[in-house]
Amino acid sequence: MYKLQEQDYLYLYPLLLPSEFKLEYGERSNSERAIQMLYKRKGLIPTIDAIKRIVAKSYAISDMNVAEYIWRGTVYDYIARQRIERKQTVWNRIRIYEELYK
After folding, report:
1. Sign of the torsion formed by the C-alpha atoms of 85, 88, 42 and 97
2. How confident is the model over 41-53, as pLDDT tens digits?
3. Closest C-alpha to 6, from 24, 27, 30
């Protein structure tokens, strides 16, 4: 069975909260605390803070003719799409690994 690797956790940062890994990947995932410690060792800020920072900084460079609530909605939609795509990429990696090493 494939166990999530450091590259998987970093690939999904900050799109997936540490608490969501177990829900999504089950026993393939480390504990929430282990994931938090990995992020801390890498010098990354907490996931929720990272998302807030991305949204805030993206608004700072947005088109000033676009209302803030519209811009934020657009950014959150993009984040949601990226989250789905990246989770699927990791699931594809898991399937390939598990098919090769049955």
Report:
1. negative
2. 999 999 999 999 9
3. 30
- Cα 4 from Cα 52, distance rounded (Å): 26
The answer on pLDDT for 81 being more than 90 is yes
pLDDT of residue 71: 85
Decide if 18 contacts 36 (C-beta within 8 A).
Answer: yes
For 17-84, give the DSSP string. -HHHHHHHHGGGSPPHHHHHHHHHHTTPPPHHHHHHHHHHHHHHTS-TTS-HHHHHHHHHHHHHHHHH
pLDDT at 59: 78
Contact partners, residue 18, CB within 8 Å, separation at least 6:
32, 33, 35, 36, 39, 47
Q: Kindly report the backbone phi and psi dihedral angles of residue 16, in degrees, each rounded to the nearest multiple of 5, phi listed first.
A: -125, 130
